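Task 17 of the worksheet. Students: predict the tertiary structure of the chain below and write it out as structure tokens. Keep your answer in the requested format; marks are given for formatting as well as content.
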Amino acid sequence: MRKCLLVMIMVVSMTLVHGQTTINRDPEIEGMVREVSPDSLQSYIKAMVAFGTRSTVSSTTDKKRGIGAAREWVLMKFNQFAAASGGRLTAFVDTSTYVADGKRVMSNVNLGNTVATLKGADPSDNRIFIISGHLDSRRTDVLDGTKDAPGANDDGSGSAAVLECARVMSKHAFPATIIFVTVSGEEQGLLGSTYMAKKARVENWNIEAVLNNDIMGSNNSNETNIINNTQVRVFSEGLPSYDLSKQAKLIRQFGLENDGKARQLARYVKEVGERYVDNLQVVMIYRNDRFLRGGDHTPYVDTGFTAVRITEMNENFNHQHQDVRTENGVVYGDLEEFMDFEYLRKNTALNLANLANLAKSPGMPQEVKVEVRNLTNGTQLMWKAPAVGKIKGYYILMRETTSAVWQKKIFTTETDVKLPYSKDNYFFAVQSVSETGNESLPVVPMPGR
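Model answer:
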């Protein structure tokens, strides 16, 4: 009797094990995620705060204080990381002269973005993926470039994430190119990112995704007093800013108001981030940015690239754009003491996992079409192989029209598939999948005959 009972328990246990959903993680990416260190992130923040101010209108020549010293320090860190890259990582400060506009810049400034490029290992793959944070800080008076503006969280946190991703990822090779950049001039009007986005458009860079990180290292809010380090927001535009007049008819006709490239990237960030980072929920916000505010991803989407913003769940405005002071027992100012470095670790790992998965993936499938010659309750999808990368196959993604996220994933090695699901009731997309299971960004099908 006891033997029979034992056998029954074993059978039930095996059934439960095999019935569980398994999350498939790339071991290389898992290892990189484990390397992300809260101590490293805190050390970067300490160093950046020690420059006193990083205002864009502060000194660019002082060796110890101001934006010039800060960007040279970032360059030094990138060059340290380059030593472990086998020659793949190179860095420089990309400078230009920004002419006074009489608004937030009263005299000409030397504008500098510190850029590190991890060159892709596949010579035929010209895809670029960018992670960005802004190095500059500000006081209540955005024109004050002399007094202290620590900028620990805004945006020391985003810049620290860029540095830590560069430190860990520089030791690995990826088919596609990854650019790590800390920009200047965000507080003066997105100056550094606008310069870089325009340069990328003129030089025809093949940018497939930009992850912009701004204010991502604190776990609490003022006013509501919410404390939360298990959620992070990703902002994405709905209707495309670039060439909307040309795209509007197709968007309306096919009901794609929620399926632009930025929104697809946001879904990707959520799925991949939650796959690799424990105890973190990615909350998609259906806005390009916070209400009536803007960040460094905006010049990219305005120029036709795919970009999103990653930001902590609950901002504390006592520690943004505030002079350091104490009033009525309340401490104001963007100080290191108000940061949560374990939370910053998770948000940095979210970025790293997505960058690595994207850079290891094949190119996106090409000419993805849905057959529309006949009225049917099924759906036929067709596409062509990606231009670059070795593929294991493809994922067909499905979701109901009311769902925010993809609900079903079907693997296939074919490029012409018939599904018993109505195109009237579902949205579809197709991803390329590498031999190590890394997925490209999804491509939504267009009507084809």
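Marker's comment: The mean pLDDT is 94. The two ends are 65 Å apart (CA to CA).
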